[in-house]
User: What shape does this take?
Amino acid sequence: MLRRILLATLVIAGTGAGAQEVFIAGVHPGERPAGAPVITEYVKDGAWYAQALFGVESPYPASLQFLEAQGAWFNPFIHPGMTGPYDIRGWHASE
Assistant: This one.
């Protein structure tokens, strides 16, 4: 019964006059919707580099040059990972 009430509420709310179309990502993954947001500039300031190079000692190895091409996409290298003996960069040392 509760499911029917919830479903009816959603249907009524979605079919009201003047309802605006909402952007839903992933409906057509091969197409970029016309109104989808676009990142035009991605600024990597000192704080970003401090986060990305946390736990890495200078001189930085050449293998980290990929950070220069890093854009606004997710990169697990610049976020804390596993704890314990796997935390070689010391992300979780203060916990």
